[in-house]
Structures are given as structure tokens and as C-alpha cells.
Request: fold
Amino acid sequence: MKNKVYVLFQTDIWKTKSSRVCFGVFLYENAAIDAAKENGLYTNESEVDIIECELRKFEEL
Reply:
């Protein structure tokens, strides 16, 4: 079983934590990138953050 997931966020262009909006959790980083592209999350007014997280671990993202 894979112990990591990738959380897809859209943020402002400065990538501040307060601007993060979660768009999904994925098993593979490539799947998160594809979803961001398919849903138009890359714009001139926003950025995309993909955070790698361990399963069964409690921490702030």
C-alpha cells in the first residue's frame, strides 16, 4: 500500500496559505497535475500547489 498522497491546492500568485483552496487528494502527483490542467487552475492570477503528505499522519498542511 502506498503511504503518500498528493493534495492539490489553488492559491494566489504569492502562494499564501490563507489563500489555499483544496481541489482534491490524489495517489499520484501526475494525476494532480493533470486535474489542475483539465480544470483550468493555472491562470495568470493564481498558482497551483501540490503538497506531498504521508497517510496516517496528523499535521498542518
